[in-house]
Amino acid sequence: MAGLGIAHVLPALRSPWQNAYAARVIGCIRRECLDQGIVFGAGHRRRVLAGYCRYCHRWRTHRSLEMDGPDARPVQPPEWGQVLAVPEVGGLHHHDERVAA
């Protein structure tokens, strides 16, 4: 944690809701990323998590953002070409993108 610049903050006493956000994020990372393959070491884990973070910010939909991502993406009209699946996070996830013919 210290290597990533993340400070340890203890939740307030008798406030279990403060841990719910962290538990949700950790659970999503485990279910959608780390439990789906074999991690060979700290460096590999760091690369996998960095790729997953890029995928989540750019392509994964978020209900609170009206099904967009934190990094807004343009709408791709049919005139842009054929739809292709582009692998993300080493092929673990994919996003669809239009590519000119």
> What profile does the largest beta sheet have?
2 strands, antiparallel
Please, how many helices? 2
How large, in whole angstroms, is the Cα Rg? 17 Å
What portion of residues is helical? 25-40%
Q: What is the terminal-to-terminal distance?
A: 45 Å
How many β-strands, per DSSP?
Answer: 2
Mean pLDDT: 81
Number of domains: 1
User: H/E order of the elements?
Assistant: HHEE
Give the CA-based shape: extended
Low-confidence stretches: none
Strand order of the largest sheet: 1-2
Structural class: alpha+beta
Descriptive report:
- The structure is a single chain.
- The protein is an alpha+beta fold.
- The protein has one domain.
- It is 33% helix and 14% strand.
- The protein has helices at 17-32, 42-58; strands spanning 82-88, 93-99.
- It has a two-stranded antiparallel ribbon.
- β1 (82-88) and β2 (93-99) form a beta hairpin.
- The mean pLDDT is 81.
Give descriptors for this structure.
101 residues, alpha+beta, two-stranded antiparallel ribbon, 2 helices, 33% helix
Give a short summary of the structure:
This protein is α+β, with helices and mostly antiparallel strands and 101 residues long.
What's the topology here?
Layout: H1 17-32, H2 42-58, E1 82-88, E2 93-99
